[in-house]
Amino acid sequence: MTEPDTDPERAINGESTVETDGGVAESDSTEIEAAENGTSDGESDGSVSIAAPDISSEAIDRVESVLESGMLADGPEVRAFEDEFAAYCGADRAVATSNGTTALHAALEALGLEDGEGVITSPFSFVASANAIRLVGGTPVFADIDPETYTLDPNAVERVLEERDDIVGIMPVHLYGLASDMEGILDIADEHGLFILEDACQSHGAEVDGDRVGALGDAACFSFYPTKNMTTGEGGIITTDRDDVADRAAGYVNHGRDVGDGASYEHIELGHNYRMTSMAGAIGRAQLERLPDFNRARRENAAYYDEQLAELPIETPTEPEGYRHVYHQYTIRTDNREALAATLDEHGVDTAVYYDTPIHRQPAYETVSTAAATLPNAERAAETVLSLPVHPALSDHDRRTVVDAVQDHFHPQ
Questions:
Q1: What is the fold, at CATH topology level, of the domain defined by 4-48+291-410?
Q2: I need a surface site. Which of 48, 213, 296, 344 has the fewest CB within 10 A?
Q3: pTM score of the predicted model
Q4: What's the chain's Rg over C-alpha atoms?
Q5: d(CA 167, CA 105)
Q6: In what order do the strands lie in the sheet with 195-199?
Q7: Comparing C-alpha atoms, which of 74, 103, 79, 48 is closest to residue 221?
Q8: Which residue ranges are recorded for the region named Disordered (predicted)?
Q9: Beta partners for 119?
Q10: Where are the alpha helices (DSSP H) in 14-99?
C-alpha cells in the first residue's frame, strides 16, 4: 500500500479508491466480480481483499423475476423490503431510497430541519453525514469523538450546547459497525428538546442493550453500498417509529407526491427522485435474510484478530458492555500506520484508512462555523487508524495471512 496521503481520496495497494456513500469503491471492478463468483477467497491470487460483496444465486433469481415482471422501478418488491427491514430493526416504518446519502437528505427534510439551524454531528465520518445537513440548508456543528469508540462523545455534545443556541438536532454516527453512546445522547436530546437522526450507514444489525440501531432515535438511515454488511448494489433506507416522518420522507423521495396517491401528478411539496429500484429491493430482501450470518462471520473474524493481535503494540477495536459490534470495519490504531500498511501490502493484504482527513478539515468545510475548531480526538484518530479485512468471505488462510503479516511487522523473523 502506498502512503495514504499520496492521494486525497486514499489508496489501497497503491490504487486510487473513491469513497461513495460511506463505502469504498473497489479500485478494479474485476475484484468485485471475482468476489461475487466466489473466486476472491484470498488464495486464488495471493491477496486478501479489503471487501468482497457476496451476491447469492437466490438474489440473482429474484432480480430475474423482477426483470421478467417488467415492473423495474419502485413497486411491490421495494414495499416488501421496506416492511422487512423495518421489522428487522424493530421500527414501525421504513422508506427505501437510492443510496445512504439520499436517505440522510430525505430524513432531514422529513424531520423539518430549516435553513440555518444547527445539527451536532461527528467530524470523524464519511463526508456524506455532514453534507446532508448542508444540502438541506442546515449547519453541521462538530463535536469531538470518544477516543476508544470513535463515536460522538456526549460530553463534547454538552459542551457545544453550552456555547450555541441554534441546535435543533443530533446526528450520531454509528461508525465501523459500533453504535454511538445512545443512552447519553438520548438523555441530552430529551433535556434540550432535540431530534436524533441515527447515521447507521455502517451498522446494520448493531445493538445497544439488545435493541438494534434504527429504532433508537426519531429516525435512522442505512446505506446498502456494495462494501456494507449487506448490499442492494446501491441503495439506502430510512427507518422510524414516527408516521409523520415516514410520510414526509416517502413523499420527498417521490417528487413530493402525496403518499396516499403516489401515482398521481399532485405534488404537494418539493421533492426529488430518490426512489429505490425494484431490482435493488429484490437484492436487499435476499441480503437481509443472510445478514445475521454475515454479521456472525464478521464477529468471528474480529474475535480471531482480537485474540491473535492482543500482545502487539496496537489498539484493537472496543466493544463496550451491552453493545454488539457488527464490524463493518476492523479498525486498529498504530502510531506508524504507513509502515504497517506497507508490510501488509508486501504480504498481499489490502488495508484502508477511514478517514485520514476529519470533515472539519476538508476544503469544502473551510467556511463552516466549526471548521476552525480543535477536535483532538478526531484529529488523532485520523492520523492513526488502519482497517484490516474482516468481511465474511475471509477464509481461515486469509485470516492467518493477515495475522502473520501484522505479527511479522512487529516481530520480523
A1: Aspartate Aminotransferase, domain 1 (3.90.1150)
A2: 296
A3: 0.88
A4: 21
A5: 18
A6: 93-97, 236-240, 219-223, 195-199, 167-171, 118-121, 139-142
A7: 103
A8: 1-50
A9: 140, 169
A10: 29-36, 57-69, 76-89
